[in-house]
Design brief:
Number of strands: 4
Radius of gyration: 20 Å
Distance between the termini: 47 Å
Strand order of the largest sheet: 1-4
Strand content: under 5%
Oligomer: single chain
Structural class: mainly alpha
Order of helices and strands: EEEHHHHHHHEHHHHH
Number of helices: 12
Largest sheet: 2 strands, antiparallel
Helix content: 55-70%
Length: about 375
């Protein structure tokens, strides 16, 4: 059944929701954690196996789920108050939330690049070029010049490409997206959906682009649709109440990410991004969370961003290890499972001793200014 969120009431013209009391969507937080874990496993697997042999071949689509969820959450958090704050205030809030881990991920990526036990690529870089790579990573400026890293937009921390587009979406949201009527937002979303189909067709049926210099603009297309769709879900009060709960929705999310890589990708990937992920957001916003899973969902929600921004430096080391030693299937299974758990633990330490304290400090400083 489709209902309106009880915490969101429409105005008289039914175009702009006014939040009476804020709730927290713990199930959506939990799904974000599941998506982050799936990306970690996907990155391990893609180093070893070609797409058709990768059991989590579509793990990369978790980024599109992130984008859609981000559009929903940003609209939910700021729609009723962005008109009462300055652009500077909005950008400060977003920088405090996002940028500490951008910096940490860049430093971690630099350290593992310089001291990678299985690679000596760092020795081939001139000091000037390495400084430019470092600065661009710290400032989140795409700089796809590292050939040995497949010309990633951010060679020191590859997943930062999606954060770059997240920043762009936030800027667009603050400047004009929040002002749009629901009808205009819907029309823009339709145009963006056509863009997704165009990207898939141009790339031979794949939506994996956006991370490299060659596929840079694919990232714009991917976030344009999903972010707008997330906003539209909130602005339209699209909620489907169900009894699926966290487990049921997690299974539905994983079904998309575990979908085999086939010749039908030109159809299945756009359908997942255009319809399936927005539907999961709608279902997740209306689902009831069992108390037995509440703490887990809250933890997954908190750990997802630190995990996403700290895991990839290990992938380069793993790639060097795999190329040198060629471990068998049994060893790989152990490495991937144990490595994922270690990365989860490291993300927790990063969150506890770096990200949360830094953000709390910056928030207090902001309040005093």
């Amino acid at each position: 059944m489709i209902t309106q969120n009880p915490t969101i009431q429409p105005t008289d013209n039914s175009t702009t929701p006014i939040i009476k009391t804020k709730q927290h969507f713990e199930i959506l937080d939990g799904l974000r954690g599941i998506a982050a874990l799936a990306i970690v496993v996907f990155h391990f697997m893609e180093i070893v196996y070609p797409p058709k042999e990768n059991f989590i071949a579509h793990g990369f689509l978790a980024v599109d789920f992130f984008f859609c969820l981000s559009g929903f959450v940003i609209a939910y958090a700021y729609h009723d108050r962005i008109g009462k704050m300055t652009l500077t205030e909005f950008f400060k809030l977003r920088l405090i939330r996002l940028h500490p881990l951008v910096i940490f991920g860049s430093i971690l990526g630099l350290l593992t690049f310089l001291f990678d036990p299985f690679s000596s690529h760092s020795e081939t870089y001139e000091t000037g070029k390495l400084i430019l790579v470092i600065v661009s990573s710290l400032l989140l400026i795409p700089f796809p010049t590292m050939a040995d890293r497949y010309f990633n937009n951010f060679g020191l921390n590859a997943p930062a490409w999606s954060l770059f587009w997240e920043y762009i979406a936030n800027i667009f949201y603050a400047l004009f997206l929040h002002k749009l009527s629901r009808r205009v937002l819907f029309i823009l979303t339709l145009f963006a959906a056509a863009g997704i189909c165009f990207i898939s067709n141009r790339a031979g049926g794949s939506l994996m682009g956006g991370w490299s210099g060659e596929t840079f603009w694919d990232g714009f297309g991917r976030i344009s649709y999903s972010f707008l769709a997330g906003m539209l879900i909130y602005r339209s009060n699209w909620i489907i109440t169900s009894k699926l709960g966290f487990v049921g929705l997690s299974i539905l999310l994983l079904l998309a990410l575990l979908l085999p890589f086939t010749n039908w990708n030109w159809l299945t990937e756009p359908v997942i991004v255009l319809l399936y992920f927005p539907l999961l957001i709608v279902l997740g916003a209306g689902a009831k969370l069992s108390e037995s899973f509440r703490k887990l969902c809250i933890f997954f929600g908190k750990i997802s961003y630190p995990l996403y921004m700290t895991h990839y430096s290990v992938m380069w080391i793993f790639a060097g290890y795999y190329a040198k030693y060629k471990p068998d299937a049994g060893q790989l299974t152990f490495i991937i499972i144990f490595g994922t758990l270690l990365l989860l633990g490291f993300a927790y330490l990063t969150m506890t001793f770096y990200d949360t304290p830094i953000r709390n400090y910056l928030t207090e400083r902001r309040k005093k200014v």
